[in-house]
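Lest this sound abstract, we let one protein speak, letters for residues, whole numbers for local backbone shapes, and leave readers to judge:
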Amino acid sequence: MTYERNYNLLNGKFKELFFPTLMASIAGNFAILADAFLISLFMGPLNLFVIQSIEPFACIVNVIYWLIGFGGSILCTHARAEFDDEKGNELFTTSLIIIVLIGLFLTVTGLLFPDFYMQILCHSDYLKPLVMQYFQLFIIGIPFLCYLTVLAYFIKTDNFIKLQFRSFLLANVVNVIFDVIFMKFLNIGISGAALATTTGFFVASIYITTYFFNSEGTLKLIKIKTSKMATYIVDIFKTGFSSASIPLYQALKLLFINMLLSGILGKVGLAAFNMCFNTLSLVTIFILGTAQSILPIVSVYYKEGDFNGIDYVTRKSLKIVTGFGIFFSLLFAIFPQAILFLFSVNDHSQIPVIMNAVRIFSLCYLGYSINLLYLFYAPSVEYDKLANAISLLEGLILPVALTYLFNYLWGINGIWISFAVAEMLTLLFIFAYSRYVTKKTNGEYSGFFIIKNNSNEKMVEFTVKGTIKEAVTLSENVRKYFLDTKFSVFVSLAIEEILVYIVKHNEKLDWIDVIIRENEDAIVISIKDTGIEFDPTQPEELKSENIDLLNQLAEDIDHSQILGLNNTVITLKK
């Protein structure tokens, strides 16, 4: 019987993360879309210029919570994968403190100096009053949004995916309910949409805080020195910048394009672009759901050197986002009138402009989907410079340059075409760079995702079912992989003891992954399972002859639970 790795464990974990993360992405990104739909329904589609004017500020807020949420959670995941729980908690504490302070700063400055923000966001004195009404209530919810989002990124790595999803769902349910109440029944108008959004963020923030009262939560708020916190902040910003720069460059891009469109087509141009932008937001929801599913998995497997596992999950994710990109491109290219229905557009003078914009703009979705997946993948494997280059090209340089160039060459259609061309040129850059690295490293790194090749290492991988019979049989088969009889016995015995221990303490266990690596100094055995939490380094918690013997054999045993997986690494010195 052979026990080659079948990736069932990894596939199961991906599926477990994917659907709730996708739902959380839908819930977490629906607030602006919901406001747009309901503003169109109750106040008319031309009033979408308010949402479009606020979008650059919303993107800046996204920059902040992505910067801290992604950067902090990636570093925290790396620390826990290296069995440093104290550092993980310090990163968690630092991230929450800094995001709350920044959120409060934005709210205070927005309330005290609203005219400063209006000078940046709205260039028409005629339109400013409505934009100001929305902004002054929207700004109050910023601290709650920032806290909610950053905490959600962290608790996902602690396997609290359902709490993350329910929190974002609650925020949007409350938002929609109060949108209807404020705009339709109380007739508050555009201010009601902002107040509903703020109320949703507030309620959800209270709900997600229940994480701290759950005994199964492993992330803790702890005391940390100011000097250490400052160091962590720098590291968090460096790690999170490539992902956070997506909305940063988007904000700058929107400012340029909003000015261009308002000068050419006025309200109709801004409304048409807002509808295009909202279709892109719809696509983004699904791509973010996929990208955020693989981010913690890739971070953990990268730190462990499991590049075959990374290759498996990135290939699977690429197929999913490609499918989403093709589906939405075809949907809006063939049926652009769907967007007219969603936004209640019935003015015949506006319909041709909007349908034409949506149909051409939809060509960008496939390239955008793949590029966005790559932008979240790259930081998780510490390709920060590459991620920054891609983000700058895709998010700012190419779209802005091509928008102005193509507008000069082909008029308004050139603006819509420029987005698709920018995405395809970015994709070509990634392909070219990956080929360059493959050639430069003589194949040590290869493929579109530039993954290190494991074939040069002395390594074997196995997957077994969670039964004592298969655990014992695997330990017997392992011996043939080692020429040295002494070490083959040690490795075989270590595997048998830990696997039997795991199986005995779980009523039901589907799969266990075992990876064995050999270098000049040691043999390292990495084991993952989805069973109950345990720590073999603390045998007094669960008395076992198997673990007592294993501790005598091993030079070192490390354990952590992350992503709902028990991760045990046994080191046998030669």
User: Anything to note?
Assistant: The mean pLDDT is 83.
